[in-house]
Amino acid sequence: MTNAIWWIRRDMRVADNKALAAAVVNGDVIPLFVLDPVLVATAGASRLKFMYENLRSLNDSMKGALVVRHGDPVAEVLHVARETGTQHVHVAIDFAPYGRKRDAAVRSALQEHNITLHEDDSPYAVNPGVVRKDDGNPLQVFTPFYKRWVNVEWTSAPKAKPRYAEVAHLDQGLPASLDTRCELPGAGEKAAWKRWEKWSATGLQGYKEERNRPDIDGTSMLSPYLRFGVLHPRQLLSQLTSGAGADHFRSELCWREFYGDVLFHKPHTAWHNLQQKMDALPVDTDKKAQEKFSAFTAGQTGYPIVDAGIRQMLATGWMHNRVRMIVASFLIKDLHLPWQWGARFFMDHLIDGDIASNNHGWQWTAGTGTDAAPYYRVFNPFGQGEKFDPDGMYVRQWCPELAEVDAKHVHTPWTLGLLAPEAYPAPLVDHATEREVALARYKKVTGK
């Protein structure tokens, strides 16, 4: 009986997995995960821990068949293939810049030994590069992208009943679980579907209105599972019917695919401005700026909704999406720091950290990326807090120093004067002043 390698990357599931289904056709399956030191070094402890837990859950569902190797994927994939006499390696395509270079190197090494790398699936319902203008050029604005994306047909994977090869002698095992003191969600496919079923029963219908409220359970919180392919977006799309909530959830799934498409066409935009004219925008990087960044990363800015978001991320590895935008706006337009500083900080701590969605989300706020109009939108953190956390429940949960402050003052505690909580810091900067500074800087670059 022949065998085939299923090289697992961002597809940590058995259900609806085209790479696994294709491997089954070639014989006994060798589920392989390579712990790449390049990616480990940039993942952050919380995301690594969540990844390990999902791999352990996947391994349990395969009755211990997972083979883990440590090292350069070029060497490790070839080693396992040659040791097992495998002629076929099946993967879900990686469209990110590093992944594309890595896979090209792996393909070349395998070809020298007459081993084929098959790209059978991807982390997207519609692969990057598919949705284009009529003239064949890529789209850089979300709305026209969505109008085309939503009409592209996609198919689920055929059901697979794999038989796993017995190659335990090749398994080097996962590292011990990391102690990050981070409260992570449950791992694995069952946990992901349990969350979907619980939330969709009560939250999907009102999603369009309630998704902006961090004080209620208004979002699916499935992004960590999508990040590692524990769920595939087409699985969620197949659950959606009609209605305002379902339609808006569908568009949010498309944002993830849109940013993946942008990065695919312009890989340099992972860390450089998409709108090159914005390279001239002044940013602060001196010692004072670094001190402000330290206060920001500690959740000590004196702006409750900003600090609550930072502290939520540090404690759980996740941050509410509306709060991500508020936090990003504050760093860029109140502190005048480079968006890259914030993007790296998020990637260090978010368990759903995805280079395309994270970094282009930051560029959207900075006005340097797609849909560039937001450069003149400067979120007022007080107004945002009062609008989307009206009773202060979210702020009090993550900023316990403000637990006893009433709803009227919880977003502006310093206005209590001598009654302001001593343990909570005064505002790091004056928003009204810094807003004008930001607008002046943008006007100098854009002329508007």
Strand-helix topology:
Layout lengths: L2 E5 L10 H8 L2 E8 L1 H7 L1 H17 L5 E4 L2 H12 L3 E5 L4 H15 L4 E6 L20 H8 L39 H14 L4 H4 L12 H5 L5 H5 L6 H22 L21 H11 L6 H13 L4 H14 L4 H11 L5 H12 L14 H8 L4 H6 L32 H16 L2
Helix pairs in contact: 4-5, 6-11, 11-16, 13-14, 14-16, 15-16
Structural commentary:
The chain contains 19 helices and five strands. With 448 residues, it is an alpha/beta fold. The chain has three domains: 3-122, HUPs (Rossmann fold), CATH 3.40.50.620; 124-155 and 189-265, Serine Threonine Protein Phosphatase 5, Tetratricopeptide repeat (Alpha Horseshoe), CATH 1.25.40; 270-446, Orthogonal Bundle (DNA Cyclobutane Dipyrimidine Photolyase, subunit A, domain 3). It has a five-stranded parallel beta sheet with strand order 3-2-1-4-5, sandwiched between helices. Strand 4 (88-92), helix 5 (97-111) and strand 5 form a beta-alpha-beta unit.
